[in-house]
Amino acid sequence: MEVLSQSELQSLQQQVTLALQEDLSAVDADYDITAQLIAADSHSNATIITREDMVMCGVAWVNEVFQQLDERVAIDWQVSDGEAVKAGTVLCKLSGPSRSLLTGERTALNFLQTLAATATLTAQYTALLEGSNTRLLDTRKTLPGLRLAQKYAVRCGGGKNHRIGLYDAYLIKENHIAACGGIAKAIASARQLHADKPVEVEVENLDEFTQALDAQADIVMLDNFSLADIERAVAINQQHAHPAKLEVSGNITDARLHELKATGVDFISSGALTKNVQAIDLSMRIS
Question: How far apart are CA 176 and CA 208, in angstroms?
């Protein structure tokens, strides 16, 4: 089971607070005017179920929603993050004040349906890479405000995290190269500024690829390369005095994953894991 880092836990609390504030003028269930139609002393039980097959992700976010709203709400989880579950499965059982259950319902489900969708799509992609040493990476193409949440969801689905932001690794792209005066100059500057940070260069053709290898990049991203050029790049890399880790990106589809895993590249990165997700169909039923 994946473990949330301290920074992810802090981000989680902020995400939930902001999400609740979108529904409430303050993080206070009393601001839910529809819930006020229910007697204050009313108590209910509820279940959250999935209407489709999915990979579970979002336990801590649901817990935090009700923790911030009303500590009297008790949640009994039937599944864990990273677990594959079938349609119709009860994910958790809840009990507590009826008003609080209803007030937190949509916010809790919004987190759950989005994070489970990310984990589920990631699991589908990673399954297509079985039998190879190629690892699936996410990107920074995340939903605004949910970067660390979706990065966690990718791990729950069996994927790996690329850099978290602009601070923890170099990714030198076309515009950086142009502004620096070339690939070699960009890499040299990166080494001088932060020698401890990994340096990755995105290249668009085999000539740029060779330049990146000669300048001793740690990782080279082959952006929208044809299959033939990817195979050629792998061969060049294997014979080079300073081989790099190779990453493929661009137009990553189910069909392409099948052919790419046979090339021997180290990584395949896909923005679709976090930006093209379709929310999982969930339901909370109160009794």
Answer: 14
Its pTM stands at 0.94
CA-to-CA distance for 123 and 159, rounded, in angstroms?
A: 7
> Is 82 in contact with 156 (CB distance < 8 Å)?
yes
Q: Is 85 exposed, middle or buried (0-12, 13-18, 19+ CB in 10 A)?
A: buried
* Structure tokens given for 45: 């039980």
Angle at 139 between CA 133 and CA 145, to 5 degrees: 140
- Active-site residue set: 106, 141, 173, 202, 223
Please give the average pLDDT of every successive group of 10 residues along the chain, which has 287 residues: 90 96 78 91 98 98 97 98 98 97 97 98 96 96 97 98 95 96 97 96 97 98 96 98 96 87 96 95 95
CA angle 142, 148, 150 (to 5 degrees): 50
